Amino acid sequence: MKQSAKILGLMSLILGLSACSVLEPKDGEYELTLVHVNDIHGRVKEGKYDGVGLARVATIAKALKQDKNNGNVLLLDAGDTLHGTTFATLTKGESMVEVLNASGFDYMTLGNHDFNYGTERLKELISLGKYKTLAANVIDKRTGSPLATSYDIKKIDGKKVGFFGLSTPETYYKTNPKNVENIKFVDPIKTAKQIVSEMKKKGVKFIVVITHLGEDSSTEKRYQSIGLAEAVPGIDLIIDGHSHTELAEKKVVNGVTIVQTGEYAKNVGVVKVDLDKLKNKNEAIDYTLYTKDIILKGDNPVQEDILVKSKIDEISKKQEMITSVKVGESSVLLQGNRAFVRTGETNLSQLITDSMIWKTGADVAITNGGGIRASINPGEVTVGDVISVLPFGNYVITKEITGENLQKAIEHGLRSYPESLGGMAQIAGMTVKFNIKNPEYRRVLEIKIGAERLDPTKKYIIATNDFMAAGGDGYSSLSKGKEVGHFGGLDEVLIEYIQKEGIQNREKIKPRLIPIK
C-alpha cells in the first residue's frame, strides 16, 4: 500500500471512531483483524527514541473494532514486553501488566527478557494478566507442565481459528541462565508440528502462531521464524518478534505469512484475514505496517486512549519520587543507543565499566553492550536515567579466571565486529588489538592489562555482571571462574560512581578496543 493511501486510511481513526477503516477491504468484509506489536521493552509512552505509546495502540485497536467490516479484532503482543525501562522494572513488571490489561490485549507470548525477573515472578505476572499468555514450548521442569497456556481456539464466523505461542530457546543464555534453570524450551518446530496436528484434528481452519523467534542471522535457522515456516507449512500466519525486524510488507515463506513490526511500538501492524478465501492464503491475508510518522502525522495524530493514558500517568506519578532524585550532571550526551553499544565503544559504556573497577578493585571489567539500553542526555542525571540505561537488575560480581579464559571471553565479544551483537564486549582496565579480517575467535592480536601483556596462565580478577558470569550471552569462559566477591546492582554502582567521581572528560573516548584492518 502506498504511503498516501496508508495516511488516508488512518485518517478515519483521527477524525472519528465510528465507521472507520484502517485498510480498505477488497470485498467489503473481513472476519478477523489482528493488531500487533513486539519487543516493546517497557516503552509504554511516546518518546523521541521510542514509539507511539500503548495508549495510541489501544486507540487503533478500539477504532478498528467499531468498523464491522473488520470482523473480530484482537490485540497481540509477540514478547519482550515486561522489562526494559524504569517504568517496568520498579514494579518488577506489574506496571506493564496493568497497562496491557487497560489496553485490551488478548494474547501475548513470552520473550527472553520477560524472564528477567525470574520464573516465579513471571508466573505471578502471567496470573495478573487479563489476556492469555501463550507459550507452548516453555515447560516447567519441576511439574512437567507448560509455564503458560499452550494454545487457544476461537470460533469466528462459524470457523475455528487457533492461536499458540513459541519462545526462543536462545532464552537459555539471553536472560540470566539462573532465571530459567527450572525451565525447558522445547524445540519450536517439534512443538509447532504437534500443536498444528492437534488443531487440525479439532477442525481448526486458520492457525496463528505468536512467536518470539525472529530472523537474526546469528540465530540458528531452526530457531528462526523462517525456519519454522519452512518446516511447518500447516501454520497460516506468524506474528513474530525478537529480532527487532521492521517488515514493511508481509513475508511469505513456504506458503506461511510472517509479519513483524520492529521495536518499542514505533510501528503498529494490522493483519486482516478473509476466512472465506483460505484456498488462496496469500490473497486471504492483508497486512499493513503503520509507522510512527503516519500515526503521529501532522495536526491530527491518532489520539491516546484516555483510560490507558490515565493508567500510565497514575503509575508514573507513584514512581516519580524515586526516579527524580538527582545523582549528577553531564555536559555531553552519554551514548547508549543500541546501534552504537552493540557495534563498538561509547563514552557511556566506558563510564559503566570504569565504575565496575572503581567499586570492586578488579584488574579488568567486562560487560555486554546489549545490557545498555538507553542514552543519557546532557544536563541533570537522575536515578531514573541510570535505571533506564541499566534496567535488568544485574548485580556486579568479581571472579578469578585465567588469562586464557579472559582472552576467550574477549574473542567471543568481538566475534561479530563491526556487525551488531548484544554480547559486544565493553571493557575497562585493558586494551585489545584485534584484526577484523581474521576468522571468528581468532581475531585478538594483543591484550594488555596496564602496561603488561596478558599472561594466559596467570589468574586475574575480573568484574562483570551476574548474567555474563553465569555464561549469559554465550560467555561460557566466564562461567568457569571462581567467584570472589559480590557487590550491589550495576545501576547502583554507576549511581555511586557518578555521585562521588562525577562525569568528567567524556567528550571523547580513548579507544580500548583497537581494530586493525
Attribute tags:
about 525 residues; alpha/beta; Purple Acid Phosphatase, chain A, domain 2; 5'-nucleotidase,  domain 2; 2 domains; 6-stranded mixed sheet; 26 strands
The CATH class assignment of the largest domain is Alpha Beta
Number of domains: 2
Query: Treating each run of at least 4 consecutive H or I residues as one helix, how many helices?
Result: 18
* Biggest sheet overview: 6 strands, mixed
**Rg from C-alpha positions?**
24 Å
Proportion of residues in extended strands: 25-35%
Q: Per the principal axes of the C-alpha atoms, what is the gross shape?
A: globular
Structural class: alpha/beta
- Terminal residue distance: 43 Å
**CATH second-level architecture of the largest domain:** 4-Layer Sandwich
Major β-sheet strand ordering: 4-3-2-1-14-15
Task: Tell me the CATH topology of the largest domain.
Answer: Purple Acid Phosphatase, chain A, domain 2
What would you give as the CATH superfamily of the largest domain? Metallo-dependent phosphatases
Give the strand tally. 26
Question: What percent of residues adopt helix (DSSP H or I)?
Answer: 25-40%
Give the oligomeric state. single chain
